[in-house]
Amino acid sequence: MNIKLSLLVLCLTGISFAQNKKKIINSEPDNNYREDQFYASVTYNLLSNKPKDVSQSGFSTGFHFGFIRDMPINEKRNKAIGLGLGISSNSYNHNIGIVEVDNNLTYGIIDESEINVSKNKLTTYLVEVPLEFRWRTSTATDYNFWRIYTGLKVGYVVYNTATFQSNLETIKLSNLNDLNSLQYGVTLSVGYGTWNFHAYYGLNSIFNTDANLDDANIDFRSFKIGLMFYLL
Questions:
Q1: Which of 4, 23, 166, 206 has a 20 to 30 A CA-CA distance from 98?
Q2: Who's near 182: CB < 8 A, 6+ residues apart?
Q3: How many Å separate Cα 39 from the centre of its chain?
């Protein structure tokens, strides 16, 4: 996983460098320029609103790619609305055991003092629609600039898996009905040039009201922090 992350970062940095070099050579001002049409992000995924005794271990990752149509809304073109389409893969490591019995899912805390757990994670794959308000200090000839992009991202879960591996057994479930198909949250990207801090906070639960732990709904909210790369 660390090798994959390093290769992704190197590739994105190289693409951004090539893009910047191209903009230097093409010094002819373009008064109708647009910024940041493609995006790629790597995040560390946390679970907020966890029930008592629920914890995370390991490194939960997210990978996000997509295209955003940049639509400037003022004459200086430093303010814009961005509307796009993307895909996302997210994993969440946790200590909840998910078992299917008679086509029904049951949930319980795993006692890791008795069971040697090597993997226990939930993975979701989404199609996403980001909507951003964009402010930046760019001009038609400046390629390194400050940006603050904030907005809303709506995602639809097209596939999900729950994988459990221990010294006793391996359980893999897919397309759990207890997940909310529609997931949405607020986003923030802040940075200068290639490197941008990115955060996402889910406004609704990953699970729906059918998922219960100790007679209480599992109201996980997704909180993602990481790096965002924008490309023309």
A1: 4
A2: 154, 155, 156, 157, 204
A3: 12
pLDDT tens digits for range 145-201: 999 999 999 999 999 999 999 988 899 999 999 999 999 999 999 999 888 999 999
Residue type, 129: V
Tell me: the pLDDT tens digits for 21-63? 444 444 555 678 888 889 999 999 999 998 888 999 888 999 9
Q: What are phi and psi of 116, to 5 degrees?
A: -85, 100
Q: How far is CA 204 from CA 7, 101, 103, 181, 223, in A?
A: 33, 27, 25, 11, 11
CB of 155 within 8 A of CB of 184? yes
pTM of the model: 0.85
Let me know how long the chain is. 232
CA–CA dist 226, 232 (Å, integer): 20
Query: What's the rounded Cα separation, in Å, for the pair 223 and 60?
Result: 11
Inter-residue contact 41 to 226 (CB < 8 Å):
yes
CA distances from 196 to 35, 37, 89 (A): 15, 15, 20
φ and ψ at residue 11, rounded to 5 degrees: -65, -45
DSSP letter string, 24-45 = HH--S--TT-----EEEEEEEE
